[in-house]
Amino acid sequence: MEFNCPSLLILTLVVLFSSILVSNSVFGKTTTTHCEFAAVFNFGDSNSDTGGLSAAFGQAPPPHGETYFHAPAGRYCDGRLVIDFIAGSLGLPYLSAYLDSVGSNFTHGANFATAGSTIRPQNTTLHQSGFSPISLNVQWYEFNDFHRRSQIFRNQGGVFMKLLPKAEDFSRALYTFDIGQNDLTAGYFLNMSTDQVRAYVPDVLGQFQSVIKNIYNQGGRSFWIHNTGPVGCLPYIMDRLPITAGQVDKAGCSGPFNDVAQYFNVKLKETLVRLRMDLPMAAITYVDVYSVKYSLISQATKHGFVHPLQACCGHGGKYNYNKHIGCGGKKTVHGKEILVGKPCKDPSVMINWDGVHFTEAANKWIFDQIVDGSFSDPPIPLHMACHRRPPH
Ligand SMILES: *[C@@H]1O[C@H](CO)[C@@H](O)[C@H](O)[C@H]1NC(C)=O
Ligand SMILES: *[C@@H]1O[C@H](CO)[C@@H](O)[C@H](O)[C@H]1NC(C)=O
Ligand SMILES: *[C@@H]1O[C@H](CO)[C@@H](O)[C@H](O)[C@H]1NC(C)=O
C-alpha cells in the first residue's frame, strides 16, 4: 500500500486501530476500559450459593452468616462469598437466588447455584448422597425459563420493571461459573479410584461445554469461569477419605485428590480453548482459583492466617470436622440440646469455615488475588471480562 498524504495514513491507522478495538470487545464498543456489566448470572455449587439450597431444602443454620449478615443468609460461610465480592466490585447488588421466591430482586442478575450441585446429574437423591438435584443442566433450564418469562412479565410494566432485567442486559451480563468440585467428590464417595474419577472427567466437561453453548445461543457473551480448587486440602476430604502417609503433599493435603482436581483443570482449560473457536463472539476468561487457594493454604502464615487445615466451625478430630455433626450441629445430652458445631473465636484469621467451605476472610483474600487478572487466562481483569484479549 502506498500513501502520498500523511494525514490519510494517520486516518487509515486510526480506523484500523479502532476496528481492532471494536472486534476486541464483545459489546462492540470502542472502550478498552471497564465493561459496565448490567447483570451477573451465576452458575455453581456451594462455593457461590447465595440462598438456592436454603430456599428449597432448609436454611443453612446459625452460626452461618454470623460475621457479616449477623444471621443465616443462605450461604455456607460466616459471611460473604467470592461471588458477593464480584457483584460488589462491579457496582451491583448481591445476587438473589433464583429459587428464593420472597424478597428477591433480579434487576441486576440471578444466582442459579446451589450447594452440592454437580455438572452431571447424579443418580442419587440429596438425602442419600448430599448432592443437590439442581445440577448444571437444571440450572440451565432455570436460566432459560427466567430469560423467557422475565421478559413476558417485564413487558407488563408495573412492579416487574423494578424486579427483572431488561432484554438487552442478557448480552451485557457477566456469566460466572464455579462448579466441578462435587463431580469429582461424587466418585470418591462411591469408592471409585482416582483413575476411575479421571476417566469420567471428559464426560463432565462435555456437559459443561453444552451449557456454555446454550447460554451463548441465547445471547450470553462474557464468561468468567473459575477452575476447581484444591479439594484435597479440605477437612471433609482429608477426614472422610484417608490416604497413606506417602500421599500427603507438601502443604499437608491429600495429594491424589489434588492431582485429580489439577487434571480436571487442565481439561477445563482445553475445553475453553475449543469453545473460543466455536463461539467467535464470546469472551471466555479462565480463572485459576486453584493456585490462589493452594497458595493461601500452603503459605497461610505469610498471608496472615492460622491453622489452614482445620475448620473454624466444627466438632472434634484432627481437622475440627465431624461428618455427623456439622457447623451449627446440635447433640442431645441428658434430654437437653446443646450446640457442638461451634464457631472458633476469630474466623477472620481462619481459612476454612466448616470443613468444606472458606471463611469470608479467605474469600475476600481470594477475590483480591483474582480481580486484577493475575490468575486469568487470557490475563483479563474482572472489569474487562467482556474483552476477548487483554486491552492495551
Ligand atoms: C446415571 O445413570 C445413567 C444411566 O445408567 C448414566 O448414563 C449416567 O452416567 C449416570 N450418572 C452418573 C453421574 O453417574
Ligand atoms: C430492585 O433493585 C433495583 C436496583 O438496585 C432498584 O432500582 C429497584 O427499585 C429494586 N426493586 C424494588 C421493587 O425494590
Ligand atoms: C465405600 O467403602 C466403605 C468402606 O469399605 C463402605 O463402608 C461404604 O459403604 C462404601 N460406599 C459405597 C457407596 O459403596
From TrEMBL:
The keyword Acetylation does not apply. CDD domains: SGNH_plant_lipase_like. The keyword Glycoprotein applies. Residues 1-28 form the signal peptide. Keywords: Glycoprotein, Hydrolase, Signal. GO terms for molecular function: hydrolase activity, acting on ester bonds. Belongs to the 'GDSL' lipolytic enzyme family. This is Alpha-L-fucosidase.
